[in-house]
Amino acid sequence: MTTTTTAPLVLTEVDTDSRIVTVTLNRPEKRNALSLALMGELIEVLRDVGSRKDVSVVVLAAAGPVFSAGHDLSEMTGRTVEEYREIFDRCCELMELVQSMPQPVIAQVQGIATAAGCQLAATCDLVVAEEGARFGTPGVKIGLFCSTPMVAISRVIGQKRAMQMLLTGQLVDAPTAADWGLVNEVVPADRLASRTAELAAQIATASSVVTGIGKEAFYAQISRDQHSAYEYAKTVMTMNALATDAQEGICAFLEKRQPTWSDR
Q1: What is the pTM of this model?
Q2: Helices (H), the chain
């Protein structure tokens, strides 16, 4: 069964059978620019989804031909220091929420993902892009270096390529973005939604408590040195092994049957 609720700037579709939620940026007339209001609404939606025990995967999509063109530039002129801080505080809160919520988040990207829109895609756990999609950090061209997008992008594509994007402001096509590690898969435009749904469904077959443990552990260990990462990871695996679903999964494998997850 599928139920749909709508909000002015964000649409949420919950498929209770597949345990997949599709969250859609719904400002196509503004190329899904991340206004203060849109970011606030998206944070509220993702917090709600993150607290749900009946949701295993989140697909982050966008209405219209563009994923997101970044910050709403109409909000970026003539502001006070406090107002600029509010915008960038909200942006950073959104990005950190995407990675801290327990469900894996898959960005479904069409058209362009630029500046904070590219940051949002890079922040998601996985990215599926259509063949015509392009990614970029063009802020340098308008006198506003993409410093916050830099944080996410430099962590997924490496220093030299990140600096190339940031310093030139040139757009990168989807195949190049995939080669660089910004995108997981590139598909024809007419396959974008279906392939993203397939990937989400593959993830949703696992125990949501286990994928939640894994997602948290991934981001916790990635910035540590190798020794401390192993120290942390072995503790996580020890606790994971005690989980009901871990015992069920191991027993199911040994007994050559499909596991029945309790999400505990």
Answers
A1: 0.94
A2: 36-50, 81-100, 116-123, 147-157, 159-168, 174-180, 192-204, 208-221, 226-241, 244-254
pLDDT of residue 223: 87
* Radius of gyration from C-alpha coordinates of the chain: 19
So what's the pLDDT on residue 211?
95
Residue type present at position 248: E
| Stretch (H or E) spanning 114 | strand 112-114
CA distances from 185 to 181, 182, 197, 201 (A): 10, 10, 13, 15
Coil, strand or helix at 4: strand
> For the chain, which residues score pLDDT lower than 70?
1-7
HSE, CB side, 13 Å, CA atoms: give it for residue 96: 8
Cα atoms in the Cβ-side hemisphere of radius 13 Å centred on 23: 26
Q: Say if strands 185-187 and 134-136 run parallel, antiparallel, or are unpaired.
A: unpaired
Burial (CB < 10 A; 0-12, 13-18, 19+), residue 121, is buried
Structure tokens at 9: 């700037």
Q: So what's the pLDDT on residue 105?
A: 98
